[in-house]
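We emphasize that the prediction below concerns an isolated chain of 149 residues; any contacts that depend on oligomerization or on bound cofactors are therefore not represented. The input was used exactly as deposited, without trimming of termini.
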Amino acid sequence: MSLPREMGWTVAEAKMLRERVNADAGAPMYYCLDTGHAPHPDERDPYLWLRELASGSRIVHLQQTEWGHSRHWPFTEEYNAKGILSADKVLQTLVENGAEDIFLAFEISHRERYEVEPTVIPELRESARYWRSHVPQDGAWPPTSESAQ
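Result of the prediction step, given as a token string:
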């Protein structure tokens, strides 16, 4: 979550919330991590959240962003040059920290402006190509160099 009034806005709070909810749950609660959320000022590193909560996650929202913001940018050459997320590093962090059965979902937004409209489809295509070059075609998890071929 992005604000103190929202439960789970620090890693410790998110862990505590999951433990409390799952203590008597008939079905487990998992995290939906967002690579763009900029929560507690001391915990703005998206890789910190991925490292600490990967094993309890099933969904990761992907958006290119800059430090301390939730920009919802596409993964294009232009935005990747100024953004802080790398597909390789996101995937490596998830794999190294126990992620299983992860659904990677774009959370890319475009302004509702006439001038922006022609960029939407091309930027989504470029984002899909960027991530597809890092994620195996068959969806195997965790990704391996052999399955990415």
